[in-house]
Amino acid sequence: MGQTFIPLSLYIHFPWCIQKCPYCDFNSHKASENLPEDQYIETLLLDLKLDVAQYSETRPIQSIFMGGGTPSLFSAEHIQRLLVGIQKILPFAENIEITLEANPGTFESKKFSDYRAIGINRLSIGIQSFHDQHLKSLGRVHSAQEAIKAVEIAKQSGFTQLNLDLMFGLPGSTEQDCIADVQQAIALEPSHISFYQLTLEPNTYFHRYPPVLPEEDSIFNSQLACQELLAGYGFQQYEVSAYAQDGAQCKHNLNYWSFGDYLGIGAGAHGKITLSPPNNIVRTVKAKHPEQYLQQDKNDRLAHAIKVDDLALEFIMNHLRLKEGFNLDTYMQRTGQNAQTLEPALSDCLQEGLLQRNQQTYYCSEKGWCFLDSILEKFIGL
């Protein structure tokens, strides 16, 4: 395959959780007492083999991201079997980043040293808040003290690349609560913090039964105060909701947001593969329900080429989430389109002060960062 300039990542979805959180719109299902770990690992490897064969894929994998759901419900032994199996199918890049999402409960944190020993080199812990009352309202099954302990265990286990997930705008929360959460996260010295606003997504319990959220001005003020706090401690915002110490940006997410390629395996997993741009850039999706996915019916392996008319919007929608923006050369390489296909939207955004330009690189102005939706509307149907 000729598109060697486009990095390749692998996303692996684990669809089970101890319980479903009321705000979660990801493909997750309450786990039974006996997870089908053996069968799921075998099915994941078969899924990958079929993808590699179908798309004639030979590129080395730059990153692996195991998300969910709760991947840390699986034992290190099974995760190791999975990683060994993957490497027999596709080569690993020399400096591959391997991320596993985990919850801070005692059950999961006991496995952290084993995960590190099998080659997982980046851990992402879903904390959300360090206030017990807010954790309870979010349906989380851990306490604030367990969250702190989990981070300490992760660091003792040798994880130097460590992300903590935090949410703001929580029911009943104040600006002081939000700042205290960020202060506690900073004190634990992770390399990366994901800091994002609670939104009431369709098909969630919170969407059907909305909780009372703080006023919008209060949420906005909390966000600004916490962003200033993060920056003061060296956490630079490089994406809408991602903050990292120097050199600790998530490689997997950077590839995703820069319109790179990724294979997606697991129940409900999505992927994107460039075959021959602009007419054959393919998005894939796997069967969503775990039981259906485990059957591996070829009719459930869906794929469709992105419409050429949608490429500008798809590229911009991803890339402008990054603070660094995008380069015209990257646009042309990854879409197979010439720069003129971004017009007149690109010039309009510059004229209106939504975008700024440095030679061939375009990025959001402070105004544009606040009105991303307005920018994206201009690129629809170019």
Contiguous runs where pLDDT drops below 50 for at least 5 residues: none
CATH class membership of the largest domain: Alpha Beta
Q: How many structural domains does the protein architecture include?
A: 2
Dominant shape: globular
Report the average pLDDT across residues: 94
Oligomer: single chain
Amino- and carboxy-terminal Cα gap? 28 Å
Tell me the helix content: 25-40%
Nearest-angstrom radius of gyration?
21 Å
Number of helices: 16
CATH topology of the largest domain: TIM Barrel
| CATH homologous superfamily (4th level) name of the largest domain | Aldolase class I
Q: How many strand units?
A: 17
Strands of the widest sheet, in order across it, are: 9-10-8-7-6-5-4-1-11
* SS content category: alpha/beta
CATH architecture name of the largest domain = Alpha-Beta Barrel
Characterize the biggest β-sheet. 9 strands, mixed
Strand content: 15-25%
What does it look like?
- It is a single chain.
- The chain is built from 16 helices and 17 strands.
- The longest helix has 18 residues, at about 35-55.
- The radius of gyration is 21 Å and the shape is globular.
- By secondary structure, the chain is an alpha/beta fold.
- It folds into 2 domains: about 10-255, Aldolase class I (TIM Barrel, Alpha-Beta Barrel), CATH 3.20.20; about 310-380, Winged helix-like DNA-binding domain superfamily/Winged helix DNA-binding domain (Arc Repressor Mutant, subunit A, Orthogonal Bundle).
- Strand 4 (about 60-70), helix 2 (about 75-90) and strand 5 (about 90-100) form a beta-alpha-beta unit.
- The chain starts with 7 loop residues before the first strand and ends with a helix.
- Helix 1 (about 35-55) runs parallel beside helix 2 (about 75-90) and helix 7 runs parallel beside helix 9 (about 215-230).
- It has a 9-stranded mixed sheet, with helices on both faces.
